[in-house]
Specification:
The protein is mostly helical. The protein contains 5 helices and no strands.
Length: 96
């Protein structure tokens, strides 16, 4: 469940536990440059893919996961449109 939540962008606890396990692993410490490179890739994935998709799914009330590749563009366009509409509405209310 920890990794499922990570891939879905709902929690990064799995990544944190992985890092703690790697710190205690002699082989991982020995290959620290390679391990760090792979961890950086996971962190980038979390920030730019999993978390972004999670935010878009939540904001557009699309709970289905996984999201098929063919549906991702539409989902992100709906999310972007909704964010613009929310910002515009907030600006109008603030000006009133």
């Amino acid at each position: 469940p920890l990794w499922t939540d990570f891939w879905k962008g709902e929690s990064k606890v799995a990544l944190e536990e992985l890092i703690l396990s790697l710190v205690e692993n002699a082989a991982a410490r020995k290959a620290r440059s390679e391990v760090q490179e792979q961890l950086n890739a996971l962190i980038r994935f979390w920030k730019h893919e999993a978390l972004a998709l999670h935010r878009a799914r939540r904001a557009t009330s699309r709970s289905a996961y996984p999201v098929a590749q063919k549906d991702r563009d539409i989902l992100f366009l709906e999310y972007r449109h909704q964010r613009k509409r929310t910002v515009t509405t907030a600006s109008v209310v603030a000006e009133s």
